[in-house]
Amino acid sequence: MDFVDKHSIVRKIWGNTDVVLFIFAGAAAEFSLNKAVDWLYFTGKLPKDPLGRLFSTVAYAQKIVFSTLTEANAAIDQINMIHQHVEAGRNAKIPDWAYRDVLFMLISYSIRAFEVLERKLTLMEKEEIFTTFYQVGYRMKINGLPTDFAAWQMMHEQQLQENLIYSCFSHDLFDQYKKHLGALRYLLMRKIQALIVPLKVNDLLKLGEGKPIKSVLALYKISRKLKVNKPLRNLILPAAYKAQILNLEAF
User: Fold this and answer.
1) In this structure, how many other beta carbons lie within 10 angstroms of the beta carbon of residue 115?
2) Which residues belong to any copy of the ER-bound oxygenase mpaB/mpaB'/Rubber oxygenase catalytic domain (predicted)?
3) What does the alpha-carbon distance between residue 27 and residue 42 come to, in Å, rounded to a whole number?
4) For residues 48 and 172, is the Cβ–Cβ distance under 8 A?
5) Checking CA distances to 180, which of 24, 107, 122, 171 falls within 20 to 30 Å?
């Protein structure tokens, strides 16, 4: 038995490398603002390689989506075990709202990325995305999860208003993004983020408008229809992360 049905919209979203990269871009922006981001600074791994850490999170989510129920549950249990080790090292507990926030990002950017690159999703498809990640959260024993899509929408909006702040960690993470991506790729990432993130995230990060990238996206969509998009995309991938990104196409 698969964790996610083979015909699910969730597999269509997470099997599309371009969409996954947009999910990554959106999450990279919002994650930098999360009030609990200091937990990943505690281990020292995030500031050393922020893009690598975020890619590994996205890759984990993708792996779960394409796994059997048994394999997915084992992967989720492994995530829990890693978090427990970090909590033991800091002698404190990661708050439930911080877990919920990361889970909410996966739901939100699955929807936002697909709609920017492909088409509008139906309510039923959005509910399917919510249900998939609700199951992940339920297995992780995250407290206080909304039980349906409508409740998630309300809680997500509240979370955006209450749990995000521009801090020294936000500033440092974006400095690291620029260092690891280079100036041109960094600029491209910010324009994509401007197009995809909620207004609250954009306001805090001062990303500006995403309109300048729309014409580039229109051309890229044409290249996808002509099946010449992969060489174009691969040209702009940072060498240090190219292998990780190309591995996303294995599903």
Assistant:
1) 15
2) 43-186
3) 20
4) no
5) 107
Helix, coil or strand: residue 119: coil
Q: Find the mean pLDDT for residues 82-108.
A: 87
pLDDT bracket for residue 89 (50, 70, 90)? confident
The residue behind tokens 């910010």 is: 190
d(CA 23, CA 82): 23
Q: Is residue 120 packed enough to be buried (19+ CB in 10 Å), middle (13-18) or exposed (0-12)?
A: exposed
User: Cβ(140)–Cβ(99) under 8 Å?
Assistant: yes
What's the average model confidence in pLDDT over 217-241? 74
pTM: 0.90
What percent of the residues of the chain are helix, what percent strand, and what percent coil, each to the nearest 5? 75, 0, 20
Residue 153 reports pLDDT greater than 60: yes
* Predicted confidence (pLDDT) at residue 221 exceeds the cutoff of 90: no
Q: At what angle do helices 50-65 and 17-31 cross, to 10 degrees?
A: 130
Opening angle at CA 88, ends 87 and 92, nearest 5: 50
